[in-house]
Amino acid sequence: MKYHQIDRDLFVKNRAKFTAQMKPNSVAVFNSNDIYPVSADSTLPFAQHRDIFYLSGVDQEESVLLLFPDAPFEHLKEVLFLRETNEHIAVWEGEKLTKERAFEVSGIKTVIWLQDFHKTLKEVMAYAETMYINTNEHYRAVIETETREARFVKWWKENYPAHRVEKSNPILQRLRSVKESEELDLIQKACDITEKGFRRVLNFVKPNVMEYEVEAEFAHEFLRNRSKGFAYTPIIASGSNANVLHYIENNQQCKAGDLLLLDVGAEYANYSSDMTRTIPVSGRFTDRQKAVYNAVLRVKDEATKMLVPGNYWKQYHVEVGKIMTSELLGLGLIDKADVQNENPDWPAYKKYFMHGTSHHMGLDTHDYGLLYEPMQANMVFTVEPGIYIPAEGFGIRIEDDVVIQEKGEPFNLMRNIPITVEEIESLMNS
């Protein structure tokens, strides 16, 4: 891996938190992701399943984690299964985890080669009464490909139909949404790398550069700072392209006088960052662009103050809508009649700000978190309001990543990334 090794104590703590929530005499199994084929003998780059990484720190394909806290034998309480490495694999694919190295990474003492997984599982299931299966129940999930995890669940149900079934995901939704200090440090590192990329781009952008050239500048800076690259597909949207919320073509020319919306974040050690800034291609905002930009910034600042323990995600968005409504009235984009006659299910402000303001962030860019439960300290949220005006040929979004605190306003992990009109213009013209 490119990143520095993470202290295994983090994964020891994460497993302890998970097993404390398991029912008596139960087993939980977690599988790595597949390596997905493209065609012929080519594949997509491997990306580890976030759940097994969260619980073990193992960042390698064909790995399986088994947790059995009530096992009758100590060596079966935590078991890590790995593909057996050898000299041939080392030559052709590179070094894989040995049993000793796996313990250094995960803190798990029992490491068994994957070829003995079914034999070990058969013994374990003879002792256990309940199996925790791992399914993806994230509110944004759209699952069209059968995963390695899904294939295991199907196989297990066919072979062990007499056991009770529980779900790992509700436990993980709660645990992963509240970050340990080590995780916050890793997310901060990802944000710091994103800052370096943004500062590089501020010195690069000028009229007539291509959107993909800007994307390349980010990629260069991310990779040279131990990141695998983008935490998600980057949005480099100039002019009216910014009004397409998930614009990812990044193939147009940045023209003089246009704004350039940059929704970009680096990953680090599988942890995400998620930044949006909107900058003037020519280095200066027009008066109208500046007015809209500052309105979005005020909404972001006020919304941030509401991310405190005890607040609820749904009610938070209602309050943000009220703030945005006031700003849109001030900009002349809506009038009082629009507000008085609005559809409660689609308020007037939604014409110009049609997406949500915040989502959980962590190992996934849209991270685990149960939206119907109150916010807690050490949850990480994005704050990303926007105003999109197709008739005027531009859209503006501004986004930071913040950590909810026990008391007071959230801590901004992107506090050092230039954000004001004055900062951006100064750096672009220095």
Automatic annotation (TrEMBL):
<dbReference type="InterPro" id="IPR007865">
    <property type="entry name" value="Aminopep_P_N"/>
</dbReference>
<dbReference type="InterPro" id="IPR000994">
    <property type="entry name" value="Pept_M24"/>
</dbReference>
<dbReference type="GO" id="GO:0004177">
    <property type="term" value="F:aminopeptidase activity"/>
</dbReference>
<comment type="similarity">
    <text>Belongs to the peptidase M24B family.</text>
</comment>
<dbReference type="InterPro" id="IPR036005">
    <property type="entry name" value="Creatinase/aminopeptidase-like"/>
</dbReference>
<keyword id="KW-0464">Manganese</keyword>
<keyword id="KW-0378">Hydrolase</keyword>
<keyword id="KW-0479">Metal-binding</keyword>
<dbReference type="InterPro" id="IPR029149">
    <property type="entry name" value="Creatin/AminoP/Spt16_N"/>
</dbReference>
<protein>
    <recommendedName>
        <fullName>Xaa-Pro aminopeptidase</fullName>
        <ecNumber>3.4.11.9</ecNumber>
    </recommendedName>
</protein>
<keyword id="KW-0031">Aminopeptidase</keyword>
<dbReference type="InterPro" id="IPR052433">
    <property type="entry name" value="X-Pro_dipept-like"/>
</dbReference>
<feature type="domain" description="Aminopeptidase P N-terminal">
    <location>
        <begin position="6"/>
        <end position="142"/>
    </location>
</feature>
<dbReference type="Pfam" id="PF05195">
    <property type="entry name" value="AMP_N"/>
</dbReference>
<keyword id="KW-0645">Protease</keyword>
<dbReference type="Pfam" id="PF00557">
    <property type="entry name" value="Peptidase_M24"/>
</dbReference>
